[in-house]
Amino acid sequence: MAELKITLTRSVIGRPQNQREIVKALGLGRVNSSVVLPDNAATRGAVAKINHLVAVSVAE
């Protein structure tokens, strides 16, 4: 199964609470932190909500 590498590229300071909660739920903490998650509908939906804060690539 494919996996996505998600990297937080921008800070959540000043962002709405729901966006902060999504970042935390994905397991991202600080700027430039990365996680590898399965490529499924739930992950893609969460990333779509915060796509202006993250960088997504295919994990190897």
Short description:
Belongs to the universal ribosomal protein uL30 family. The chain has about 60 residues and is an alpha+beta fold. Helix content is about 30%, strand content about 25%.
Question: Would you give an account of this structure?
Answer:
The chain is an alpha+beta fold. It has one domain (3-59): Ribosomal Protein L30, Chain: A (2-Layer Sandwich). Helix content is 30%, strand content 27%. It has 2 helices and 3 strands, in the order βαβαβ. A 3-stranded antiparallel beta sheet has the order 2-1-3, with no helix packed on it. The radius of gyration is 11 Å and the shape is globular. The model has no long low-confidence stretch (mean pLDDT 96). It comes from Liquorilactobacillus satsumensis DSM 16230 = JCM 12392. InterPro entries: Ribo_uL30_ferredoxin-like_sf (IPR036919), Ribosomal_uL30_bac-type (IPR005996), Ribosomal_uL30_ferredoxin-like (IPR016082). Residues 4-54 form the Large ribosomal subunit protein uL30-like ferredoxin-like fold domain.
